[in-house]
Amino acid sequence: MAGVLSMGGVLGASGRVLLQSEARRASSGQAALRSRYDVLVVGGGHNGLVAAAYLQRGGLQTAVLERRHVLGGAAVTEELVPGFQFSRCSYLLSLFRPHIYKDLELKKHGLKVYMRNPHAFTPLLEEGVGGAPPRSLTLGSDLARNQQEIGKFSQKDAMVYGHFNSYLDKLASAVQPLLDAPPVDIIGLTSGSLRTRLTATKTLMPLLQCGLKLGKNIPDFYEIVTAPIMKILNRWFESEPLRATLATDAVIGAMTSPYNPGSGYVLLHHVMGELEKEKGSWGYVEGGMGGVSKALTSSARSHGAAVFTEKEVHQILVGTDGVARGVMLTDGTEIHSRVVLSNATPYLTFKKLTPQASLSPEFIKAIDQIDYTSPVTKINLAVDKLPNFLAAPTPDGRPGPHHQSSIHLNCESVELLETAYKECINGKYSSREAYADLVLDWVEQYAPGFKSSVVGRDILNPSDLERIFGLTGGNIFHGSMSLDQLYLARPLPCLSNYRTPIKGLYLCGSGCHPGGGVMGSSGWNAALAVLADLRSS
């Protein structure tokens, strides 16, 4: 049996020719590039594609310009080893907003998702008792089965686990109105004409809806957003494997520790999605995560949007009046438009693509302060057989339920997570190939024979993620999801409503509210801001 295995980890010591290009464009249905559009979207990530689809549906001639040969940004499928297709960067779907899924008819355009169940498997490195295999913790959608699994470590934890899930669900559900709307318009509420202030009051509605949904749970919401996740988990649970399994979702992709303030929000962010109307569920996309981007591209094109690959933007054109006028490609081609949306990170948008003379020194200094630190390394592996875990042996080579879950290795203790964090911030992490070897050595301890099954690998450390995907600092969220970079302050207080100091230039990527993950909300919200501004102009 052959397959692919995607692995991500904390960087801790412990742990072409013209004819080919033309052929690709012809086979992908790309139209000829024109010299003028109503809207240009810089970057073909999922948010850029969402924005393009809605703007084209709104009657604006829209074109997407993607630097790479493949669309989707971090949500791509690529053949890295001959015969093996990988979700090279992003690998799971849950956070994508249901109304966008429905509006853009993504099922009709080929998107098919398989539910991940069980969703977590944490094997332990220990000696089995009486000839039995080592213990493990498997969590899925069946509460009774979850309680049985947790009961191996603590009957008390087994009894309260369902209540904990209900607690998280109440908090996550209340956040939903905030995801599909821009943050409160503070400037509009506090300055300008009476008409402006009245219009701005509408932006309060999602916040009020959130508050009403929370009701008496407002203190709980405040705590999970601001507290270290361990403060909450220690109150609920006593068993270490359960606490560690839950804590990993509070640090994944973030340069933080389970003991740091704000890590609770990272966990909440990862459970606020839904799939097939099942809240908090995650799934695998048929054909890899590129299937999401392929469906979005098909939807956008069905409405008339033009989507191009291998069109790298060199600079955003800004007129002497301080208004965005289009873009210049790296080959010198100028394309003009009424509006430009950037799906790039705020740093790339304002430090690399926008003429610096068009921005104030104070603004540039603020951009420099945005946190893009990243602890993420993604390792994609091609294997010729499934791993056979000591804690859940499958000697016949057939897949077990745990093979389709997220497998937590070398993190069955919260202290292991904390140690890796401390080593990372102190610069004690391995070089690219050495780190991959270290990871495989650890997998080997849980699943002997695993290393010999590997037939190819692709290693993406933070610098690779930045170079290949344009993720500044290698941060998969387009900027830290820390408390100082959320909601009204994402990515900066002056940029929280997708508009920028350059009239006609907007941000639409994950660096905007509501943040990272394959969600689509940033693209949706940015498109609505553009349509509203054009209607009022």
Explained architecture:
- Probable oxidoreductase that may play a role as regulator of mitochondrial function.
- One of its GO terms (cellular component) is mitochondrial matrix.
- GO terms for molecular function: oxidoreductase activity.
- InterPro entries: Amino_oxidase (IPR002937), FAD/NAD-bd_sf (IPR036188).
- It is found in: Mitochondrion matrix.
- The protein is of the alpha/beta class and 537 residues long.
- The chain has 2 domains: 234 residues, FAD/NAD(P)-binding domain (3-Layer(bba) Sandwich); 165 residues, no CATH class.
- Helix content is 38%, strand content 17%.
- The chain has 20 helices and 19 strands.
- The strands form 6 sheets. Strands 2, 3, 12, 13, 14, 15 and 19 form a 7-stranded mixed sheet that branches.
- α2 runs parallel beside α20, α4 crosses α5 and α9 crosses α12.
- The longest helix is centred in the N-terminal third of the chain and has 25 residues.
- It is globular and about 80 Å long.
- The N and C termini lie far apart (60 Å).
- About 4% of the residues have low confidence.
Short description:
Keywords: FAD, Flavoprotein. Interacts with COX5B; this interaction may contribute to localize PYROXD2 to the inner face of the inner mitochondrial membrane. With 537 residues, the protein is an alpha/beta fold.
